[in-house]
Amino acid sequence: MAEEQESTVTSQESLIEKIADKIKGHDSSSSSDSDSDSEKTAASSIKEKVFRLFGRERPVHSVLGGGKPADVLLWRNKKISGGVLGGATAVWVFFELLEYNLLTLVCHILILLLAGLFLWSNAQTFIYKKEPHIPHVHIPEEPFLQVASALRIEINAGFSALRNIGAGKDLKKFLIVIAGLWVLSIIGSWCNFLTLFYITFVLLHTVPVVYDKYEDKIDPLAEKGFIEFKKQYAVFDEKVLSKIPKGPLKAKKLA
């Protein structure tokens, strides 16, 4: 009897120890889960606080509009992007370096096309005794209407932005636009419109892809520059802008 009581006591003690071990293991796993959850939330909060250039919250591909135009600008298809950039370079070389005029270039291209088509059609008739099939070229109307509609929307938005800036509601934006136009006028005095357009085209095909590749290194530098700009603007606002007398418009509104 004594041995049976001792065995039952030891079995009860081992059962209690197992239950305690399970409780401890559950507590440790729950604490580790809570620690991992807290680490994840901290990491996500850190990611949310990362400075992005121009305050963007979407990837560069989405900012550029997505689709095929963004693929071309980001060199997702190197053949198409290289072909577009090569074509723009050829146009710039023809008009800027070789000093071709637009009318002269169009006429020379048409002369070559018509001469080749004329020779080919006569050779086809002479050899095969039948007239060649020349396809009809037809330009659809819908793409031109879409482009015109998109241009109309953008031009109207530009006019609205200029109106808001000229109304004197935002002095900071007004000064930024005036400074940008002044810099653009200086650049325009250095080169003609075609060269400026080509430089802009090349920048559109190089800057986004470089930023998309090295954004983790560029964003911290941009953050430092933005902080320094805000400091300098605060000093300029305190010493200059704050001393400019306000117009009578606000006084009339208050009255």
From TrEMBL:
Places the protein is found: Endoplasmic reticulum membrane
Residue segments, region Disordered: 21-40
Annotated PANTHER family: RETICULON, RETICULON-LIKE PROTEIN
Keyword presence, Hydrolase: no
Domain Reticulon: 69-255
Designated name of the protein: Reticulon-like protein
Transmembrane portions of the chain: 100-120, 174-204
Membrane topology: Multi-pass membrane protein
Keywords noted in UniProt: Endoplasmic reticulum, Membrane, Transmembrane, Transmembrane helix
One BP annotation, GO: response to bacterium
Domain of life: Eukaryota
GO cellular component terms, semicolon-separated: endoplasmic reticulum membrane
